[in-house]
C-alpha cells in the first residue's frame, strides 16, 4: 500500500510539474513529429506565416506535422507553455519577461513583428494629431488595464480626463455610435473594419510613444527546448520559411484562414496582410531577416518593465530568448 501511494504521488508530481521534465515528441508512422502551436487570437494575417508554413510544406520538409489551434480574448498562452500543456504558443515579448520574473520558464524563439501593432483608434472627426491628444481630451477609452502597455500610457500621459472601460476586442458597435469613444486596436485590423463601415479613423501606434516589445512571438518552455532541441530548431526554421512565403504571396494562407475565421472578409485579409508588412520587415529584420531578435531590444524592454514596476528584479536577456544564430545558419 505504501508503494502504491508513492507511485501515485510520483505520477501526480509529473503531471503538475510536466514543464520541468517534458516528454520527448514521438514520431508518427510517416516519420514526422506532430506538435501543437497555440495561437492567442483567431486566424488572421498576424498569423499568416504559420499557416503558410503548414500549407506550403515548409513544416513538413523539416519533419513536422504542426496542428495550429486558434485562441481568443485572454487566451493564457504563456501559462499553457509554462504548464507544459502545449509545446509552442504565440505570446508577446513583455509577457515573456513578466512570466520569467514570476518563475515561469518560457522562452522566445522567433518574433514576427519588429514594431508592435498595438495602437489607439479614434474617430478622425476629433482632429487628433498625436497619441497624446487622446489623453488630453475628455472622452472614453476602451482598453485592457493592468497590462504593461496600459501602465506605460498611464505613467506617460495620465488617465485623468478619460473614462477607461474594458476593451471590446474588435467589436465596433460602440465606436460607430459614440464619437467620443476611442479604443485599443491592432492598426492592421480594426481600422480596416471601421473603414468597411464607412467610419474614418485616426490611429496611433503605441510603439511611436516609446513602448515597443516584439509581438506575435513564437515561444516554448525551457524544459521542452532542453528535451527536444531538434524539434524546436525545425519549428523555427519552418516558421521563417513560412513567413517568407506569406510576405511574398499571402493568398493561399489567407483563403485557409478565411475559411476558419469567416468573420473577416477576403478583402480585409488582403489589406491587413499588406498593412502589416512594414511592421514585420522593418527594424533588424530588414538586415537579418524576418523573425530576428536582439539582446539590446530585450535589455531595453526588461529595463522599461522594471522602471514601470511591472517586474521587481532585472533579468538577463539571454534568459528570455534564444539567439537567432542558433537557428538561422545556412541550409
**Pattern of helices and strands:** HEHHEHEHEEHEHEEHEEHHHHHHHH
Give the N-terminus to C-terminus distance in angstroms: 56 Å
Mean pLDDT equals 90
Query: How would you sum up the major sheet?
Result: 5 strands, mixed
Number of strands: 10
Radius of gyration: 21 Å
Question: How would you describe the shape?
Answer: globular
Task: Give unreliable regions as ranges.
Answer: 1-24
Strand content: 15-25%
Structural class: alpha/beta
Count of separate DSSP helical elements: 16
- Residue share in helix: 40-55%
- Order of strands across the biggest sheet? 2-1-3-10-4
How is the topology of this model organized?
Layout: H1 2-16, E1 33-38, H2 48-55, H3 58-61, E2 64-69, H4 77-83, E3 88-91, H5 93-101, E4 106-113, E5 118-123, H6 131-136, E6 139-142, H7 148-157, E7 162-165, E8 181-186, H8 190-196, E9 201-205, E10 215-221, H9 222-227, H10 229-248, H11 251-260, H12 266-275, H13 277-281, H14 285-288, H15 295-307, H16 317-320
Parallel strand pairs: 1-2, 1-3, 6-7, 6-8
Antiparallel strand pairs: 3-10, 4-10, 5-8, 5-9
Helix pairs in contact: 2-10, 2-11, 5-15
Amino acid at each position: 500500500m505504501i508503494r502504491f501511494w508513492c507511485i501515485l504521488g510520483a505520477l501526480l508530481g509529473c503531471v503538475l510539474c510536466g514543464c520541468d521534465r517534458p516528454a520527448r515528441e514521438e514520431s508518427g508512422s510517416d516519420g514526422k513529429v506532430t506538435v501543437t502551436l497555440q495561437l492567442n487570437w483567431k486566424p488572421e494575417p498576424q498569423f499568416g506565416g504559420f499557416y503558410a508554413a503548414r500549407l506550403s510544406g515548409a513544416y513538413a520538409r523539416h519533419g513536422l506535422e504542426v496542428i495550429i489551434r486558434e485562441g481568443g480574448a485572454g487566451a493564457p498562452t504563456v501559462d499553457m507553455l509554462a504548464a507544459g500543456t502545449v509545446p509552442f504558443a504565440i505570446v508577446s515579448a513583455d509577457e515573456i519577461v513578466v512570466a520569467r520574473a514570476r518563475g515561469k520558464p518560457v522562452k522566445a524563439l522567433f518574433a514576427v513583428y519588429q514594431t508592435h501593432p498595438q495602437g489607439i483608434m479614434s474617430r478622425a472627426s476629433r482632429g487628433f494629431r498625436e497619441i497624446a491628444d487622446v489623453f488630453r481630451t475628455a472622452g472614453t477609452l476602451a482598453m485592457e488595464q493592468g497590462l504593461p502597455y496600459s501602465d506605460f500610457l498611464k505613467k506617460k500621459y495620465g488617465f485623468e480626463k478619460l473614462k477607461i472601460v474594458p476593451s471590446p476586442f474588435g467589436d465596433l458597435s460602440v465606436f460607430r455610435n459614440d464619437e467620443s469613444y476611442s479604443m485599443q486596436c491592432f492598426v492592421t485590423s480594426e481600422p480596416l473594419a471601421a473603414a468597411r463601415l464607412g467610419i474614418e479613423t485616426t490611429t496611433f501606434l503605441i510603439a511611436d510613444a516609446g513602448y515597443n516589445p516584439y509581438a506575435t512571438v513564437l515561444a516554448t518552455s525551457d524544459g521542452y527546448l532542453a528535451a527536444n532541441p531538434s524539434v524546436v530548431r525545425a519549428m523555427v526554421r519552418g516558421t521563417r520559411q513560412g513567413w517568407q512565403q506569406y510576405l511574398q504571396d499571402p493568398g493561399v494562407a489567407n483563403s485557409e484562414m478565411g475559411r476558419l475565421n469567416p468573420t473577416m472578409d477576403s478583402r480585409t485579409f488582403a489589406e491587413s496582410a499588406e498593412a502589416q508588412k512594414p511592421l514585420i520587415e522593418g527594424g533588424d529584420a530588414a538586415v537579418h531577416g524576418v523573425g530576428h531578435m536582439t539582446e539590446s531590444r530585450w535589455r531595453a524592454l526588461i529595463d522599461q518593465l522594471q522602471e514601470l514596476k511591472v517586474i521587481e528584479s532585472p533579468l538577463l536577456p539571454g534568459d528570455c530568448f534564444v539567439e537567432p544564430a542558433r537557428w538561422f545558419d545556412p541550409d
